[in-house]
Amino acid sequence: MGRAGERIGLCNVQRRRLSRPPRAGSNIAFIKYWGVADPRLNIPLNNSISMTLGALHTTTTVEWDVAGRLSADEITIDGERAAGPKAERVICHLDLIRHLAGDRRFRACVVSRNNFPMASGIASSASAFAALTVAACTAIGLSLDRTRLSAIARRGSGSASRSIFGGYVEWERGNDDATSVARQLFPAEHWALRDVVAVISTAEKAVSSQNGHALALTSPFNAARVDAVYTMLQEVRNAIALRELERLGPLIEQDALAMHAVMMTSRPSLLYWQPGTLEVLHAVRRWREEDGLPVYFTIDAGPNVHLLCEPAFERELLRRLQTLSSVRTVITSGPGGDAEVIDQHLF
Ligand code: DP6
């Protein structure tokens, strides 16, 4: 009788997952998030502003095992079973969502795929935790608006709070879990800006952003950078509103360099640049000053350089990047939409 009961149980394995998996775009910050005021809640030191990227994304399927088959969460990223700190970070986020749903029993099977190299300064954690948040919350039955999803995504990865929204997005620093959330400034259709990523290296970075944020406060330049950001935010919003790259470009270069100055002067010092990073920076300034090519750079926590330009100049930029010996490959994207559900599951 018991055995038959077990069999029936097996035949009736219940699964709870989304009918379709979510896909979230990565994002490139114009005003950076660097340094945390509250590391547990991921409350940043300053507001940040970014563009969500349409061509660089993560797709994630989450299946909650309501039948109790799994004894632990199972996480697969880009075809490989995740272990160690990478898996622990995902499990920690699943724990938060289990807690919010008021049910800590269910384990989850998570399969996630990036269409770009992970941990190469192309902000894989942003799209990863945005997609994971939407998939896991929806599948467990939490019906939440984007603002609430943004707050939850933030706990997994700060920049993920921005990737819940498409287009041009601002993450308000806020003071607590409810107020530190992102909002859309303008939809993707507002401005077809191009992000051309000059890839210098796809190697995994030595110090993750997560560990780097904790060091920002040790730099003597940190307070000056945060002050400067607050005078720049309105200028950046205005430049995006008016679609004026000549106004936006110098601001984003200034904040990228200020953030890297903070990184370089923290204790211990973080030096994400490679010789190829400088080759691209010098070339871009030369092309702009000598030939009038309107292209501006920004750099995340890695050696790769994001170049922003209007669509009309993309071809010429790509041609010139091919002449630089340290540029291994180029990835391009325009602005993308909100984190959304798509038609194909990953398993
Ligand atoms: C340099 O969001 O990756 O890309 O919250 O630890 O996941 P965690 O950090 P993360 O930091 C992003 C840092 C940055 C700047 C930015 O995207 O704003």
- Amount of helix: 25-40%
How far from one another are the termini?
34 Å
Strand tally, please? Answer: 15
Question: In one word, what is the shape?
Answer: globular
Percent in strands = 15-25%
Number of helices: 10
Secondary-structure element order, as H and E?
HEEEEEEEHEHHHEEEHHHHEEHEE
Structure classification: alpha+beta
Biggest sheet: strands, sense, closure?
9 strands, mixed
Low-pLDDT parts are 1-15
Mean pLDDT: 90
**Bound heterogens, unique:** ligand DP6
Radius of gyration, taken over Cα atoms and rounded to an integer in Å: 21 Å
Itemize the secondary structure elements and their pairings.
Layout: H1 2-11, E1 16-17, E2 22-31, E3 36-38, E4 43-44, E5 48-65, E6 74-77, E7 80-81, H2 84-101, E8 107-114, H3 124-140, H4 146-156, H5 160-163, E9 168-171, E10 182-186, E11 194-199, H6 209-213, H7 222-242, H8 245-264, H9 275-291, E12 296-298, E13 305-309, H10 314-321, E14 329-333, E15 340-341
Parallel strand pairs: 6-8
Antiparallel strand pairs: 1-5, 2-5, 2-15, 3-4, 5-8, 5-9, 6-7, 9-10, 11-13, 11-14, 12-13
Helix pairs in contact: 2-3, 3-4, 7-8
Bound molecules: ligand DP6.
The site of ligand DP6 has 17 residues, from helix 3 and helix 6.
Question: In a nutshell, what does this entry contain?
Answer:
The chain has 347 residues and is α+β, with helices and mostly antiparallel strands.
